[in-house]
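Subgroup meeting minutes
Present: P.N., E.W., G.H.
Scribe: E.W.

1. P.N. recapped why we're keeping a running log of single-chain structure predictions: easier to compare across weeks, and new members can see raw inputs and outputs side by side.
2. G.H. added today's entry (173 aa).
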Amino acid sequence: MNIRGAERGEISALAQLWYESWRDAHATIVPEALVRVRTLENFRERMERRLDAVRVAGPRGAPLGFYLLEGDELEHFYVAASARGTGLAAMLMADAEAMLRERGVTMAWLGCAIGNERAARFYEKSGWRRTGTVVSRLETTDGPFELDVWRYEKPLTSLEPSRVLHARRAVLP
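Output recorded in log:
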């Protein structure tokens, strides 16, 4: 499957994917105050503002997964429920790591909501290591929202041979 930059015409579809995936993973484990402000419109506005940092997997207009990078952070990573278990998440992760490496990042990190066990298992299977708990300041329509998250890190100085081939395939046009 091709992984590519997001396109303006995909904002609504990406926002819908983000909203549904976020609710599936977070609605029962984060404070209700955060769930209330994470509306479909909120995800749409955030996607529109950050579109240039988003990479997508899936047909144009019907994304199956995406990620968003910010500096040395894998800031957002979501896969549609229908695409789980297909290998798409591993392909997206390989692409994200390759993109971070291309930017010169040697130690990448991500935050995972405490209690999001499915995501935690995937990150650990992908070679990320939980290094502790940190406070993440999330942007919301009500202002900053502080949330404790698990911090994961991964050194990106080298890849196992099988992952090199996988990452190269993932970034081909």
